[in-house]
Write a structure and sequence with these properties.
Length: 264
């Protein structure tokens, strides 16, 4: 019998992202352009499955990367049943701060999260803009993960809904960077974590870290005046209270200035 553990919670997070079950329900598969991500998935699979895990070079659409697969019927049956075929977060992963909840969030962020760096510089700081985000086509899954992230003090922006080329709705939350860094969570993908650390190194150079100068004081006042009413988003796994002054919805109607929005 499979019981919830930290490695299993991580695999659940990856599965709710872009992993899938193939081989007539017998094989757990994951494709990624980042081999280090699949190596971490393999380590967690090895702790909960007695079957071998294989990673091979592969191509997907127009990108070259790696494919992981593990033939374990019991694990596949568990993932399908526990998530109702990728429709929700399992109830066995609590809505509170604990190792299993953190592992779920980290697995999901590795699969469906991104750290984007702007090609343009900030008007105020003259430094590149960085953003952390997470998304899914299933709002119930996304809300279940983000609601658990809130238990670690992670703040997020308003829910954004956009249409993909295949006409499916894609829901995203933008994550407030400093609250994410304080949470203790990390990406296992070096490419994403390196970009986040690049932003961290840039923090001492930013005006609001030099004390409450007139510049930062005026900026705080400006943010306060521009904030609107806080909207609540009712979801199956809880009620969100997004930050009212953290609105990115205007970006949907314009060309996205952020590069490396991971889609695979």
């Amino acid at each position: 019998m499979i019981t919830m553990s930290k490695p299993l919670a991580y695999i659940v997070g990856v599965y709710l992202g872009d992993a899938y079950i193939s081989g007539s329900g017998r094989c757990f598969e994951q494709y990624s352009i980042d081999k280090d991500f699949l190596v971490n998935v393999s380590k967690n699979l090895s702790r909960i499955s007695k079957y071998p895990v294989t990673i091979k070079e592969a191509e997907y659409k127009t990108s070259s990367g790696y494919r992981l697969y593990c033939f374990d019927r019991d694990l596949c049956d568990y993932l399908v049943a526990a998530t109702r075929n990728k429709q929700c977060v399992p109830d066995t992963i609590p809505l509170k701060r604990c190792p299993e909840t953190q592992a779920l969030c980290e697995g999901y962020l590795d699969a469906e999260g991104w750290v984007a760096k702007s090609k343009k510089l900030s008007t105020y700081t003259k430094h590149p803009l960085y953003r952390i985000g997470v998304g899914n086509t299933n709002l119930n899954v996304l809300s279940g993960v983000v609601y658990r992230m809130e238990s670690f003090g992670i703040q997020h922006g308003k829910l954004i809904c956009s249409s993909r080329k295949d006409a499916k709705d894609f829901y995203t939350f933008e994550i407030e960077k400093r609250s994410y860094m304080k949470s203790g969570m990390k990406f296992s993908i070096r490419r994403k974590q390196a970009r986040l650390e690049e932003y961290i190194k840039d923090i001492p150079k930013r005006p609001w870290n030099k004390g409450l100068t007139k510049y930062s004081s005026d900026l705080v006042k400006q943010i306060g005046k521009s904030s609107g009413e806080t909207k609540k988003v009712n979801c199956a796994n809880g009620t969100f209270h997004p930050e009212s002054n953290f609105n990115t919805s205007q970006r949907l109607n314009a060309k996205d200035p952020y590069e490396d929005r991971d889609t695979v």
